[in-house]
UniProtKB/TrEMBL annotation:
Species per Swiss-Prot/TrEMBL record: Ramlibacter pallidus
Biased composition annotated in UniProt, kind: Low complexity: 68-79, 94-121
Protein known as: DUF2339 domain-containing protein
Keywords from the UniProt entry: Membrane, Transmembrane, Transmembrane helix
InterPro entries per the UniProt record, alphabetical: DUF2339_TM, UCP035905_mem
Annotated segments matching region Disordered: 68-125
Record bears the keyword Membrane: yes
TM spans (from-to): 23-39, 142-165, 177-195, 207-229, 235-255, 260-277, 283-301, 308-326, 338-356, 368-385, 391-412, 424-445, 471-489, 501-524, 550-567, 588-607, 672-698, 704-727, 748-770, 790-807, 819-839, 859-880, 887-905, 917-936
């Protein structure tokens, strides 16, 4: 079959188109013989397998083993020791007794019964989705919690009167004057009847409800007279509504009826909106609101009615803000500034009266909404008023800070009243003073103030809400943080302008956002203990505690953003163009130092030596290794080397701090992460060592030579060699390492860090060997003594040494690592590298161009390959013969066969050339040497086993 294939292959080779018939015939004969030999082997193997199967089937049919008889269970003995089997039963061993409990445990499990619904743990409430339900529940409790009948009656009566008025208007049943008079009389009657009912102590709630309904009806009457029928001019209607408000306030004070005052003032604040014609005077509007605010401040002196204070605050500043957005013009400044100061004074006094006059506990006395909300909104309106005046916002901030310094000092010196309330008020006022004084510097340079002040004030509101157990105040503070962040991002350009470091609004604004988020995260790290909190309050307490790590990271990233805008600061020259203060290399190392130094400053809060570790404070330190790797890669991609721009100082500093943090934290959580961090340190060492070599290559002006192409390969080889030497003792005797980090992280260094590094080195050696031409300028080219050959040999040798060492160790390795594949891969790469050595020799000494096509077409290269492959095959076969290694001998024989095939397919095409003669002679002589010194070694036979071990050897 082999001969038949060779003949037909030669015939087909002669018929193949082309002019080289001799070469075609020889190649066809060889390929045909190989095909015939493989076909013959396949056929013989199939025949032998079929014969074996038939023989086994006949043997099985001749000997049929008897079927095993069923063994009936023996009856249980009277002693109760469990079932036994008679000893005389052949082939049956005594079984151990089985307890009834074990039988029950091994029986088929019964389906589990469903747990009763009452036994299930209710899911925690969601404060977002529970808020509408909470409002509905409270309205339901108000309607049905007290005198349900009267409250329902008031609602129905009011609706009925409204329907009656509408019906009368639509059908013209009565004159409009009579209709309005009837409605007004009905309101007065309700109020009078409620006033009469207050004489009965048990009917106080009933009476207050009727009085409030009567005042609401009076408001409705005046509004209808003005808006629907124009019976009253705007001024008269305005005065009438103000008088109703004043009347309700006086009656509420006399009767101590908070609800009545709230209804009256709600109508009073709504009066200008109800009677507005769009042509009103803002001085009259603000004067009227100032009178209402003064009345609320007087009531705050007399009564601790917080809802009334909030109504006045929200209504006054809400209307003022809307007017300022829609109508304000800088020409109105002189007529609006006094009113803004007066509004601010009125509601600061209201908050002081509420806190200091009524002997309330500290948790309720300090109203965070008024204490912090009044300066926030007032300062926002002030900034809008003076936005056209240079530095006016900064001076306003200083003035406001001075006011709060005086208030804080006054409350600190105050000796009367509750000391706790005085202290809390002083802390709030001094915090506000510090915030406004801090804002004065950036506001003098830039108008972006809102986000910073809202962030600081939001932190103050959260702190007060935390101390007073008010979840709504804390929710408002968190919402204020989000709004402040959005406002900052809207006005931010990502860079800061200014000649002075830090003193610019971009940095200070981001820093204040960071500080506010971090202090809120610190306060929220422990769940809030709100005594008697509602379901919504309890749900929000759980929510804010869960958000504490998120707030920490928001604050940390805001701080990094503040550092970033400061590092990217620019100055504007006389021509109006801007120039960066720091160059690109300096910006990179400063950002890197900012991250690592910030993580180093925070990580002590998470150390287990603290009484209550703040674990999230360690998370920035967890990410030091990725940050360092990214900085190194970015510097390699964009800079000449990472040690520019002060990198010589910063990189050793940050690495030392990183190792210090790693030493303190790597015995805690997360345990699965720290081996990767240690491994990343090894990879970082490779990058930095490579950059050092880059710097050396640049200083020596060796770019464009082989020295530059082997930089990372040499750096990786040195690092892997250091790993092999450092882990040598720990791999030979596990547990012998006594010093950190090898005492606990030997596998991380010896395998997790070294395995990717060795793979990268092997592949890098292959790439360098194939693509580097070995230019050794200024040194002459010498085979094997040039940077390319030396670095490739060093990398492959260190990879092989590491692989052999870890395979001999007790490390838990994947099965592939202990198999033949890694060594085979290294051998293949080494074979390719040896072949490229001859390419570089032919290029430098033979004058062959360093081009793939030119090298392949060169007969010098091809002839050298033939001799080289034969020498390699000779070495393999001789060595395998001495050690009786048939696989290695077969590998050498295969290479020799490929060489012979190449002689006839490639080298034979050089007709008449002297090179062909030399190649054929050299290869032939070498093959003779192989046949003499290295015949096929005998196959190894298994040593005979003792009779006692025969059963163990049988699978």
């Amino acid at each position: 079959m082999v001969l038949w294939g060779a003949v037909w292959g030669a015939v087909l080779g002669l018929l193949w188109p082309g002019y080289n018939e001799e070469l075609h015939a020889i190649a066809g004969a060889l390929l045909g013989a190989a095909a015939g030999w493989s076909l013959r082997k396949a056929v013989r193997g199939e025949v032998a397998r079929t014969a074996t199967l038939l023989q086994a089937a006949r043997a099985q049919a001749a000997v049929q083993p008897p079927a095993p008889a069923a063994v009936a269970p023996a009856p249980a003995p009277a002693t109760g020791d469990g079932p036994t089997v008679p000893l005389s039963s052949p082939g049956v061993r005594p079984q151990p007794a089985v307890a009834p409990a074990q039988v029950a445990a091994t029986a088929s499990p019964r389906p589990a019964t469903a747990t009763p619904a009452t036994a299930r743990t209710p899911a925690p409430p969601n404060p977002v989705f529970d808020l509408p339900a909470t409002l509905v529940r409270r309205a339901w409790e108000w309607l049905f919690g007290g005198n349900t009948v009267v409250r329902m009656g008031v609602v129905v009566l009011f609706i009925g009167l409204a329907f009656l008025a509408r019906y009368a208007v639509e059908n013209a049943l009565l004159p409009p004057q009579l209709r309005l008079a009837a409605i007004g009389v009905a309101g007065i009657a309700l109020f009078a009847f409620g006033l009469r009912m207050r004489r009965r102590a048990e009917r106080t709630g009933y009476a207050t409800t009727l009085q409030g309904a009567g005042i609401a009806v009076l408001y409705l009457t005046v509004f209808a007279a003005f808006r629907l029928y124009q019976f009253l001019p705007a001024g008269a209607a305005f005065v009438a509504l103000g008088l109703i408000c004043l009347f309700s306030a006086v009656i509420a004070l006399v009767l101590n009826a908070q609800a009545l005052a709230f209804i009256g003032f709600a109508g009073g604040f709504a009066a200008p909106l109800l009677v507005s014609t769009g042509q009103g005077n803002h001085v009259a509007l603000f004067g009227y609101y100032l009178l209402l605010g003064a009345a609320i401040a007087v009531i705050a002196w007399k009564r601790a009615w917080r809802p009334l204070n909030l109504l006045g605050f929200l209504s006054t500043f809400g209307i003022a803000t809307a007017w300022g957005v829609l109508r304000y013009d800088p020409a109105h400044y002189g007529s609006t500034q006094p009113f803004l100061i007066a509004f601010f004074t009125v509601y600061v006094l209201a908050s002081l009266f509420y806190a200091l006059r009524h002997g309330q506990p500290a948790r309720k006395a300090v109203d965070a909404t008024l204490v912090f909300g009044t300066p926030i909104v007032a300062f926002g309106l002030q900034a809008g008023l003076v936005r056209e005046m240079p530095y006016a916002t900064a001076f306003s901030s200083l003035a406001l800070g001075f006011v709060y310094v005086l208030l804080g000092a006054w409350t600190l010196k105050r000796r009367s009243g509750d000391a706790t309330v005085n202290r809390w008020l002083a802390e709030c006022f001094l915090a506000l003073a510090l915030g406004f004084a801090t804002l004065a510097v950036p506001l003098a340079l830039d108008g972006r103030w809102t986000s910073a002040v809202w962030a600081v004030e939001g932190a103050g509101v959260y702190w007060m809400g935390r101390r007073q157990g008010r979840w709504l105040a804390r929710a408002f503070a968190l919402a204020l943080q989000g709004l402040a962040a959005l406002l900052y991002l809207e006005g931010s350009t990502g860079m800061a302008a200014g000649r002075f470091p830090v003193a610019n609004p971009a940095f200070i604004g981001a820093a204040m956002l960071a500080a506010a988020a971090l202090v809120i995260a610190w306060w929220a790290r422990n769940p809030a203990q709100d005594e008697g909190a509602s379901r919504a309050g309890q749900a929000f307490a759980r929510l804010e505690h869960g958000l504490a790590p998120v707030l920490f990271w928001i604050g940390f990233l805001w701080w990094q953003s503040a550092l970033g805008v400061e590092i990217h600061r620019y100055v504007i020259d006389a021509q109006g163009s801007y120039a960066m203060v720091f160059d690109r290399a300096t910006r990179l190392v400063l950002m890197l130092a900012g991250w690592v130094l910030s993580a180093f400053a925070l990580h002590p809060f998470a150390l287990p030596t603290r009484a209550a570790p703040w674990r999230v404070a360690a998370t920035p330190a967890w990410l030091n290794a990725p940050v360092l790797l990214l900085a190194a890669l970015w510097g390699m991609a964009t800079l000449d080397h990472v040690f520019q721009g002060g990198g010589w100082l910063v990189w050793p500093l940050v690495i030392a701090l990183h190792l210090r943090m790693l030493r303190r934290l790597d015995d805690g959580r997360p345990q699965a992460w720290w081996p990767w961090v240690h491994a990343a340190g090894v990879w970082l060492a490779v990058l930095l060592a490579g950059n050092l070599l880059v710097f050396a290559i640049g200083r020596a002006q060796l770019w464009g030579t082989a020295w530059a192409t082997v930089i990372l390969l040499v750096a990786g080889s040195l690092v892997l060699l250091a790993l092999v030497l450092a882990c040598r003792g720990a791999l030979q005797a596990p547990g012998s390492a006594r010093r950190w980090p090898l005492d606990r992280f030997t596998p991380a260094y010896a395998w997790r860090a070294a395995a990717p590094l060795s793979i990268a080195l092997a592949l890098g050696a292959l790439v360098v060997a194939v693509y580097s031409r070995g230019e050794a300028r200024p040194l002459p080219y010498l085979p094997l003594l040039n940077p390319t050959d030396l670095s490739v040999a060093l990398a492959l040798a260190i990879c092989a040494a590491w692989l052999l060492r870890v395979r001999r160790s007790a490390l838990v390795l994947p099965g592939m690592a202990r198999g033949p594949a890694p060594l085979a891969l290294l051998g293949a790469i080494a074979f390719v590298a040896v072949n490229t050595v001859w390419l570089r020799i032919a290029h430098h000494w033979g004058g062959v161009a360093w081009d793939a096509d030119a090298l392949f077409d060169s007969f010098l290269v091809q002839a050298g390959y033939s001799i080289l492959w034969t020498v390699i095959a000779l070495g393999l076969m001789v060595g395998a013969h001495k050690r009786a290694l048939r696989p290695a001998w077969m590998l050498g024989a295969a290479l020799l066969g490929i060489t012979v095939l190449k002689l006839f397919v490639v080298d034979l095409s050089n007709r008449g050339g002297s090179e062909r003669i030399i190649v054929f002679i050299a290869v032939g002589l070498l093959m003779l040497v192989v046949g003499w010194f290295a015949p096929l070694p005998p196959a190894r036979t298994a040593p005979p086993r003792a009779a006692g071990n025969l059963q163990e050897a049988t699978p």
